[in-house]
Task: structure prediction
Amino acid sequence: MPLLFFIFFLILNGKITLEICIFGAVIAGVMSLFAWKFLGYDLGKEVRSYRYIGYYLVYAGIVVKEIFLANFQVIGMVFKFGYKPKPVLVSFKTPLKSEFARVALANSITLTPGTITVELEGDHFTVHCLDERFVCDFNENIFTKYLLKIEQKTAKK
Result:
C-alpha cells in the first residue's frame, strides 16, 4: 500500500524531482500508518492478494469480452424493426461464498448491457433482463464459474 500511495502521489504531482519523491515517501508513509491504525489494514493480506492478480486480470478480460458481445446483442435488438422487448426479472441464489465475489458478480451483471442487478441480499440476487433472451442460468455463466475458481484458489492458501 505505501508503494501505491507513493505512485498515486507522483501521478497527481505530474513531475519527478528529489524533493517531490522525498515528500511523496513521507506522505505515503503517513497514509499507510493511518490505514494500519484506523482502517484495519493488514500488509500480509495485501501481499497474499498479489499472488492472485493474474486471476483478477483474466476475470477483467472476461468481463470486457462479455460486455463487447452483449453490446452487439442489444444493438441488434434496437435496430430490429418492430421488435418489442419482453423484460424479465430473474431471482436466483449463488453458490459464491465471499462477499467480494458476490459483489463482483453483481457488478459484472450490471456492466453487461441488457442486464442489471436490482438486488443483492446475502446470496440471493434479483436481476432485471431487458429481454427474455438475456435470461440464463446465472450460476452456470462464465462470471460465476470463474469467480468460483478464484474463491477455490484463494481459500487454499
In short: The mean pLDDT is 87. The chain is about 60% helix and 10% strand.
